[in-house]
Design brief:
homodimer; about 375 residues; alpha+beta; eight-stranded antiparallel beta sheet; two-stranded antiparallel ribbon; globular
Chain lengths: ~375, ~375
Amino acid sequence: MVPSGPGEGPSRYSSRHGTGRGCMNPVLVEALRGGVRESAHRGAVAVVDADGHVVATIGDIERPIFPRSAVKVLQALPLVESGAADRLNLGDEELAVACASHNGEPEHVAVVARMLAKAGLDAGALECGAHWPYREKVQRDMARAGIEPSALHNNCSGKHAGFLCVACQLASQPGAGVDRSGLRRFAAGYVGPAHPVMREVTASLQAATGFDLDQAARGTDGCSIPTFAIPLRHLALAFARVGTGAHWPAGRAAAAQRLRVAVARHPFMVGGSDRFDTRVMQRLGERVFCKVGAEGVFCAALPGRGLGVAIKMDDGNNARAAEVAMAAAIEACVDLDDGEAQFMRGLSDVTLRNWNGIEVGALRAAAELREKLG
Amino acid sequence: MVPSGPGEGPSRYSSRHGTGRGCMNPVLVEALRGGVRESAHRGAVAVVDADGHVVATIGDIERPIFPRSAVKVLQALPLVESGAADRLNLGDEELAVACASHNGEPEHVAVVARMLAKAGLDAGALECGAHWPYREKVQRDMARAGIEPSALHNNCSGKHAGFLCVACQLASQPGAGVDRSGLRRFAAGYVGPAHPVMREVTASLQAATGFDLDQAARGTDGCSIPTFAIPLRHLALAFARVGTGAHWPAGRAAAAQRLRVAVARHPFMVGGSDRFDTRVMQRLGERVFCKVGAEGVFCAALPGRGLGVAIKMDDGNNARAAEVAMAAAIEACVDLDDGEAQFMRGLSDVTLRNWNGIEVGALRAAAELREKLG
């Protein structure tokens, strides 16, 4: 039942051709106003166990999609497996921020800077680019304090600091011919697909998903690293194994567990204030490891049930669509007490209020999504 | 050919029931990465002339949708028709900002404050609520200057100032029994559907669209006024008449023309820096009056061709979906010289770059949209 290479599952519609009028993904999330549906979000969901059995499927889970930042934990496996985390004495906060799409809050920036310092590097080595933090309040706080954004504020800076720690490890290996002062030069260009660091990262992604990335469509991510199109079924399988380690070599399984535990201990590091991932993991602890990606992608490991979940919204909407769908999936697949269930329902059936605090509508998981998730 | 009340056109699918798997709106806009479609936006488009003839139709144009802020020009008609604009000596900037969803930039705030002062009121009379300006740079500039947001910064503050000017006019009518000092009390609650001001505004919307709003689904907008669900065909008809005045009483036709000309003279007032509406009208002048609304709605009057356009994206995406679709509609329906056509193509076929400036993909009008728009 382990999924093999591409072309195995029949794709119900091509991503390149046609208008998708034929067999289409259903509505997973709807926005209501005045009691009627104002907008709707279509998408697909795969729930898979660590043996590769598809436990629930909604929409097309065989079409390859770019997972973007949802797979940062898979891209961080080499950081632990290579021995870099041990040699550089990385703690849980640093491992958690390596899996993050963070808000660029002062805590994130400090941990990333510390991580780079442990590798003998600084923000100048980051190749992710700089942007103002996504969280507007953080932008305003920075503006008041006269701080301009650097690459440390980039939501991917922790992942990139992890890549640089891998570079440090590769450079330190016997025969690498890189002395400490040559590290910066060795690491340069690490975002490129042919760089030794990115080759490690890509190999890890391929091993975890069981999908042949040589044959996959490749794009460039917002932070300049390659992103590969992978079917939801394979992504969900990888996350089932992140949660259980089943069918994985001991080193990879241990690395996944260490990253999961690090994030469970420091969920703020993986997102930040008011972020879905952070809030859910603060509440549910190690029972859920979830990670949003750009363009409406969401992946989760549910270790207690041995399941992995992968979601892609057709329209690429994260903040209100993929999150609501993921909340419904967690409600359906995780054993929750009444308080936890109520907390999660507040994320899958959201009252919308306007600037005056007046209730104007709701965002909610569509009936079909709840039915199919059981 | 004038559309009449609801129930006339067969709705191809209900907004209340089912998953919409049957006859569905086509993909109008697609986001590409690495040469493949990463995300897609479905929707519907109506292009209608002032006699009510449907010139082009894509998807379901009979299903009522909430037009939200796209109809601010229709809601501003009473400001001119009632005589308020003349009596209060409102200029073009003030009329333009009454039709705006503005960025909350200093210029917008100043004009709205001036408009309120002409009515003998101030920001305390606004019932739209306060929010930080949508444009992040404006937020940061305010934070640096130590300015907190007020109702003047609300993107709808100009529309609300217009409502208050109508209140001032109604209060001044013989027999109203309201003296100048009683205006604030008379205006209070103007956002409610039963207030004399909102009754004027709703009557104007009904007259302009030819749609029976007593029978329409009603919701509450972000700024607390009612919003009524109206089919795209009726919205496009109203905008065709905004552009031409055909079939309208002389007073309403003149009011629409005065508002259009005011916006064409001050397109910055209707949006602001880097905003689609502002940029397009700065470039094309009176040949286009276009206005975005929340949840993926976009309406336009194209006076030179005597056409109205109304668009609704199923998923509610404005910034990249409704705008790209509207740009394609303008390209198809407006006579443009080469430079103008190139400018508009830059808005309907957008190169996406990441934080490092590397080209990573594109947003573009789908082939089906361009074909059907002819």
